[in-house]
Design brief:
two-stranded antiparallel sheet, 2 domains, His-Me finger endonuclease fold, elongated, Wheat Germ Agglutinin (Isolectin 2), domain 1, 4 helices, alpha+beta, two-stranded antiparallel ribbon
Length: 136
């Protein structure tokens, strides 16, 4: 069987097309060669994004993208505070700039708002516990 590529307009064997669930014939509209050429700029952009992330992590935290991915894997992709599976962000000490772990956006921002102070956080816990007593 043969199929015509929408880009190069050549009729080619169906083995020269990737499969596609979205097309009725089950094959991509572009042959493998044309599809690879079509995807190349997107692949380059994805690689640049990862390179930019790696540069940002190294500049800001002294660790690369691979170390961040390994941290996420070791944490089971869960926030270290709330335990939810959400997008994770690098948490670091604002004094030493050392990475402490990965947190979801809400928990990371909360620590910042509490100025990384255990005293302020303990005061917040006491406040919430007192409020709970009043609710009962």
């Amino acid at each position: 069987m043969k199929k015509k590529c929408k880009d190069c307009l050549q009729e080619k064997s169906i083995e020269e097309f990737y499969t596609s669930k979205s097309n009725t014939d089950g094959l991509n509209n572009r042959c493998k060669l044309c599809y690879c050429a079509f995807r190349q700029p997107y692949q380059r952009a994805a690689n640049n994004t990862n390179k930019n992330k790696d540069t940002k992590y190294r500049k800001n935290y002294g660790i690369g993208l691979e170390e961040v991915k390994e941290l996420a894997r070791l944490q089971n992709y869960l926030c270290l505070i709330c335990g939810e599976k959400k997008k994770l962000y690098v948490d670091h000490s604002h004094k030493t700039f050392k990475v402490r772990g990965l947190l979801c956006y809400s928990c990371n921002i909360a620590l910042g708002h509490f100025k990384d102070s255990t005293k302020v956080l303990l005061n917040a816990i006491s406040y919430l516990e007192r409020s709970k007593e009043n609710e009962a």
